[in-house]
Amino acid sequence: MNAPESPRSFGRNEPDYPNPLPRPEGEFEALQKAWKAPSGLSFITAVNNTYVGLWYIGTAFLFFILAGILALIMRAQLALPESNLVGHDLYNQLFTMHGTVMMFLFAVPAVEAASVYLLPNMQAARDLPFPRLSAYAFWAYFVGGLVFFGTIFFGLAPNGGWFMYPPLTGSKYSPAENADWWLLGIGFIEISAIAGAIEIIVGVMKTRAVGMSLDKLPIYSWAMLVFAVMIVIGFPAVILATLLLEMERAFGWPFFIAERGGDPLLWQHLFWFFGHPEVYIIFLPATGMVSMIVPTMAQTPLVGYRLIVLALVATGFLSFGLWVHHMFATGLPKMSLSFFSAASTAVAVPSGIQVFAWIATIASGRMKLTTPSLFIIGFLFIFTLGGLTGVMVAMAPFDWQAHDSYFVVAHLHYVLIGGMVFPLFAAFYYWMPVASKYPLSERLGRWVFGLMFLGVNVTFLPMHITGLIGMPRRVYTYPVGMGWDTLNVVSTIGAFMIAAGVAIFIYDLARKFRFASDDNAGNVWNASTLEWLPNGNYNTRSIPEVVSRDPLWDQPNLSKDVEEGRYYLPGTATGGREALVTSPFDARPQYILQVPGPGWQPVLAAVFTAAFFLLLTVKFVLTSVVCGVIAVGCVIWWLWETDPGPVRPPADIGGGIVVPVYVTGPANHSWWAMIVLMVVAGMVFTCLIFSYLFLWLVNPGAWPPQNVRIPEWTWPSLAAFLYCGSAVLIAAASRQLRGEDRRSPISVPILIGVALLFLCGGSAIDLWAQWGTDLSPSAHAYGAAVYAIMSLQIFFVLTTLIMGAYTIARWLARRLDSVRRTTFDNTMLFWYYTVGQGLVALIVVHCFPRLTGGI
Amino acid sequence: MNLEARWHTLHGWLGTFAKRAAALFCMLSLIGCSGVQSALDPAGGDASRIYWLTVIMTVGGTLIFLGVTSLLLYAIFAPPERRAWLGTRGTIVYGGLAFPIVTLSALLPYGLIVMRDTDVPQEGALPIEVIGEQYWWRVRYPADGRQTEFSTANEIVVPVGRSIAVSVTSADVIHSFWIPNFGGKIDMIPGRINRINFTAERPGVYRGVCAEFCGDQHARMAFDVIALEPEAFEAWRTEQAKPAREPEIPLLARGRELFRVGGCGSCHAVRGTEASGQFGPDLTHVGSRRTIGAGQFPNNIGTLAGWIANTQHIKPGVRMPSYGSLSGEDLRALAGYMESLK
After folding, report:
1. Cβ separation of A397 and B80 shorter than 8 Å?
2. Pairing of strands B150-153, A651-654
3. Name one Pfam family in it (chain B) (predicted).
4. Orientation of helix A49-78 relative to helix A485-512, angle to 10°
């Protein structure tokens, strides 16, 4: 492990900067030219984080407004008992869409979008490491999200509640396409969230200002790191759940149908294993923002930096151990309820640490009551209340009463509005001067805050009572005389107050927001972190070296020195876009990453990916497949331009530091991304194995069911042999491709080709063997689980097939040799993963039923 | 403005606020006090235990909330020299780490004890089986001692003072069985049988409701719960186990004939007649129930007639079609027959 070194170890004395003045003629112009945004129609091909980040935030905010309007319609309906404003059908779509859109199309994308915009600036990186990936994630989300939302206008919106419990959402009780829109629409937007998470992990770990070691990382970066890791671990569960439910709906594989060995509770476990962390996934980035804003507003360093980092990590960790508190009423044994009850209270501790750290910071400074400060105060007020009711519902007996009542509606809105929306509005006001020529109006800001703060409390405080006096959630109307009438009218009035606040905000935004990069309003709050450095599309002119957590306060001339180009990499070494990759712990410069620029590929790939999923939903299978193939083609076209190789000798970035412009292996940023992707894949597979074992538990003595044969040992053994053989061949190909002499021997494509045959052969034999036993995937959950495991494996084998063929094509095009081999390395990593997954799958499918079934 | 002055204004403001909040809370809790479907009006031991847990946590939570917000406002508005002690790492360690750990360590065992004592199976409990269906409740009283078994719907009658053991499951999608005045809820999950135990301690009329979203008419899926003194309960039970009454006047006989030729019996059972359908609610003693439509409307000849003629209008999406083609007279006869099935 690289121990963090003292900040001075590779710095120098104050007057002695890495790069001397004056800077050479044309250096700055070359930098500007490399980062120039495309103009005209091709403006949408921009991939730079400044543009994509803002579009992303804007789109997320649009969904906030749209889902908010849905909520207003619901509140209008509930203002009076037995109201006929909207019917049950529309109402059920409204609350499903409100929850789904707020969670999946607003909250997660909004915090991810904010970090696309802010992270590189805060870490003084020129851009995120995979700008085209962010562009792809954005466009997929933009197209998919808008189409998904549009279903409400056609009565096709999902109507089973945002957690989509089967069997209500199964094909028997929801035969229409409404549920498919949720499963395919949201399933695919989750993929976009994962793409963003991979980007954030690599961005935080690898692209930072020089000397920004982990103990000097802004808290926001820490929060985003924990956030991204949580997405990587949590989202696969819901992706798998949606896949299983969609397979059940489309092909009748009974994962959740009790009559055929399935179990509706399997969905709940998978959903909440994602769904509870989801709450913290939304909340942690917001706390990261708060930890940035509070020190600025109080003009003092954050108190308890290490404790806050610890709290972030602890929250992330604990949040995966309490999903069952959403299932307290499902009849689980009291023993397991006790465990989850304890874990649910424990998670209050790290939140307490953060709240008191902010209070301590405020006390140690002098809080200016600006609009961001007001939103922070509002956040602390509302979130504390939501946290306390959270402890209440963590007590299982209380939850038996409160669960699925308006008390929970109140609790979750306190936590989510308090914990995420208020910090986000604070962030809008706080960071507006970075993104815009003018800051937002402080005078109107007070109105926005006042209306929203009062509105939230007027809406949701009464709901605690409404729930305890018996009103269940998700009812489109309620009878007269239950004592709920007054409280509901009050809640409705509150909802419109919130709306008024948001409307004023939009008005102010229209008045004051003018996009800016190099002519932004500047450091109006006297903040201490690097996003307030003068910047352009290339972010900072030179990449600063930082020696503390508050560089702008501790290094007084930093802004000027950075802008003059006195720090590292003041121009461009390769003539194109570049980012400086630093070591993960102590942030020493490692190499220059050649960053891809604008291109149509990510936009087209995203549009066709969206088309693939959306057309599949409406069962235009053929067109959908064509779109899918085009999408894969676009991705290949996009990748073809990456992995440029060492286009020039190592470059001097200043201060005598000479770094290469191309590296391979574990230092390479794409190696990291591939490792994270493997974790995602591994989690999907782990959740699938969990599902298999869960279904075994609910079918004691019927695993496999009567009259089901298991294939002879010969076949799985042969498949395992072929899998292992393909891995050995790939390892051999890797050995052939070593050395500094840029060899590219003919043996490499041949070995890859044979390895591909082995891999596909292994998978085919396994499928053929199961097929030969007449095992039906739709007769019983056993068959469904076996075929699901095999389908996932086949999907990975096919992906490896495409990657292998692509790698061979790179060799044929002379774009692959012993030095320029990142493409090969990534394929190899994925290959090993596929083989490993295949072996585990064979063991589970062939050995486990023999152990349990006594065959 | 000078900070000292602000501090005083704030002091006054906080005081007023606390008084008003207390007044508001009292007012709001009064609303709950007489609820037929309220967790704040416990009518059984389990509900009482949970009620006190609620009260204690609400009071404790309110105090903590006031403490935290006061500290926050103190940190903002108190003069710098007076608030300096707050701006240290110690605040985090004591306030954010030690305090929650101590408080939660006290609360958690209390919560676990309440859990242990709530929903406990008792010897000699009265068994009742409830099956949730879109969007009504099938209720079955299994044979118990001398008493024979029988089925009813959308109404649960229990004796006061005897433990009740309800087994629940679902015939279609997930529902949740919740009688707030008696205790918590339990999900009704297809393929699983869940149990909930409670004891009614106060005679009266209460209301239960479906708490898990179950489709179109989830909002209109409720049931009556009637707690009777043991003797009254036994009498009710004996009546319910009997076959349906014979019609006493020609109009009602005509109603029974309409019921027969209309095919009502293919979905509904009326014990003692040839109607033996199991798809919909058992109507043998439908006239004795307080409400119809799964806890939706008071039960009388008018609402019964309205229900038969306009089912899909009143509760769109239920399984029963509207029988709007019946003439007024036929409808009256049919509804009258239903009402007579006491």
Report:
1. no
2. unpaired
3. COX2
4. 150
Q: Output the pTM of the full model.
A: 0.94
Residue with tokens 């308890």: A304
Would you call A593 helix, strand, or coil by DSSP?
Answer: strand
- For A510-562, the pLDDT digits (tens) are 999 999 877 889 999 999 999 999 988 899 999 999 999 999 999 989 999 99
- State the pLDDT confidence band at A191, using cuts at 50, 70 and 90: confident
CATH 3.40.50.2300 is the classification of domain B126-239: no
Q: Is A395's CB within 8 Å of B95's CB?
A: no
Strands (E), chain B: 126-133, 136-141, 150-153, 155-159, 163-170, 175-178, 185-188, 194-199, 204-210, 222-228, 291-292, 297-298
Q: Is residue A69 classed as helix, strand or coil in its secondary structure?
A: helix
Cβ atoms of A506 and A441 closer than 8 Å:
no
Write out residues 15-44 of B within 8 Å (CB-CB) of A.
Answer: 28-29, 31-32, 34-41
Neighbours of B80 (CB within 10 A): 12
Rounded Cα distance between A590 and A582, Å, is: 5
Residues of B in contact with A262 (CB under 8 A): 191
Q: What is the CATH number of domain A679-853?
A: 1.20.120.80
Element (H, E) at A652: strand A651-654
The secondary structure of A691-741 as a DSSP string is HHHHHHHHSTT-SSPTT-----THHHHHHHHHHHHHHHHHHHHHHHT-SSS
For residues A727 and A831, the answer to whether their CB atoms sit within 8 Å is yes
Give domain limits for chain B.
3-117, 126-239, 250-340
The residue type at A744: S
- The CATH H-level superfamily of B250-340 is Cupredoxins -  blue copper proteins (2.60.40.420)
The model's pLDDT over B141-175, given as tens digits with 9 standing for 90+, comes to 999 888 899 999 999 999 999 999 999 999 999 99
Q: Are strands B150-153 and B297-298 parallel, antiparallel or unpaired?
A: unpaired
- Spell out which residues of chain B touch residue A341, defining contact as CB-CB under 8 Å: 108, 111-112, 115
The mean per-residue pLDDT over the stretch B41-50 comes to 94
Query: For A47-512, which CATH class?
Result: mainly alpha
Tokens of A468: 């305890």
Q: How many helices (H) and strands (E) does chain B have?
A: 9, 12
Q: Measured between CB atoms, does B96 come within 8 Å of chain A?
A: yes
